[in-house]
């Protein structure tokens, strides 16, 4: 058991989903049916398409997090070629993040406390001008979630401003459970990052696998399932003692 988790829990699990995709509004019922609250890292354009429904997601106890306004990623991704991190400055990325926070607050009445790095990338600039924007996130948020990680987070030593997260798109329920089992063995905080919820590939957590995964999590007392912000709050409080 870990001193960082509620009594009896050996592992913390945070489910998260990016971009405020429409399929998430249908898939959230699976989480609700099993009493599982997740973190949704939203884009303003996504919530603006259905603000009332996203307000309902927030009201149900799910976390609404910041994922920037324009989703800038490396120029190596064709979709981001005209919005490349290599061509941005720290001031520009800060403004992008702050705009997103303001829109989220205006539309949903929620001020995000955690952030998810688009594409898991946390830099701006090129070569000798390349800089990390992790400090900007650390200044604004309780935690920053990465993407494409290969491990869980050790709550006593992890950097809350840049947490590792497994990509779970396309994983079946047994693969999802193996991540939890590995985290249980080490006393980790396991963060999972997905996109669509349903049946379409490639960036999809299949509904049937998510449903069975939630069923297994809900009946295992060793697993503490909570949004990223809630676990981050617990980690900070425990470290302070």
Would you kindly provide a written description of the structure presented here, covering whatever features stand out?
The chain has 8 helices and 12 strands. The chain has a single domain (11-240), classed as Glycoside hydrolase/deacetylase (TIM Barrel, Alpha-Beta Barrel). The model has no long low-confidence stretch (mean pLDDT 97). The chain is globular. Strands 1, 2, 3, 8, 9 and 12 form a 6-stranded parallel β-sheet that branches. Strands 4-7 form a two-stranded parallel sheet. The chain has a two-stranded antiparallel sheet with strand order 5-6. It starts with 10 loop residues before the first strand and ends with a helix. Helix 6 packs parallel to helix 7 (207-218). The protein is α/β, with parallel strands linked by helices. It has helices at 22-33, 44-48, 51-59, 90-108, 134-140, 173-186, 207-218, 228-240; strands at residues 11-18, 39-42, 63-66, 114-116, 123-124, 131-132, 143-145, 166-167, 189-194, 196-198, 204-206, 223-225.
Secondary-structure blueprint:
Layout: E1 11-18, H1 22-33, E2 39-42, H2 44-48, H3 51-59, E3 63-66, H4 90-108, E4 114-116, E5 123-124, E6 131-132, H5 134-140, E7 143-145, E8 166-167, H6 173-186, E9 189-194, E10 196-198, E11 204-206, H7 207-218, E12 223-225, H8 228-240
Parallel strand pairs: 1-2, 1-9, 1-12, 2-3, 4-7, 8-9, 10-11
Antiparallel strand pairs: 5-6
């Amino acid at each position: 058991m870990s001193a960082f988790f509620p009594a009896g829990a050996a592992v913390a699990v945070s489910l998260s989903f990016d971009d405020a995709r429409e399929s998430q509004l249908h898939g959230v019922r699976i989480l609700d049916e099993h009493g599982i609250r997740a973190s949704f890292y939203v884009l303003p354009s996504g919530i603006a398409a259905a603000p009332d429904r996203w307000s309902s997601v927030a009201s149900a106890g799910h976390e609404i997090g910041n994922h920037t306004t324009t989703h800038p990623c490396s120029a190596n991704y064709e979709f981001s070629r005209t919005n490349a991190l290599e061509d941005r400055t720290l001031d520009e990325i800060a403004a992008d993040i702050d705009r997103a926070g303001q829109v989220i607050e205006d539309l949903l009445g929620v001020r995000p406390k955690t952030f998810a790095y688009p594409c898991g990338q946390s830099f701006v600039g090129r070569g000798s001008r390349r800089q990390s924007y992790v400090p900007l996130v650390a200044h604004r948020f309780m935690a920053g979630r990465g993407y494409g990680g290969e491990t869980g987070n050790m709550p006593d030593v992890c950097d809350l401003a840049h947490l590792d997260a497994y990509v779970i798109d396309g994983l079946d329920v047994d693969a999802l459970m193996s991540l939890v089992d590995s985290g249980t063995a080490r006393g980790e905080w396991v963060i999972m990052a997905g996109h669509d919820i349903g049946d379409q590939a490639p960036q999809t957590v299949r509904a049937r696998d998510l449903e069975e995964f939630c069923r297994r999590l809900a009946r295992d007392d060793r697993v503490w399932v909570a949004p990223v912000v809630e676990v981050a709050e617990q980690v900070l409080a425990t470290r302070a003692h």
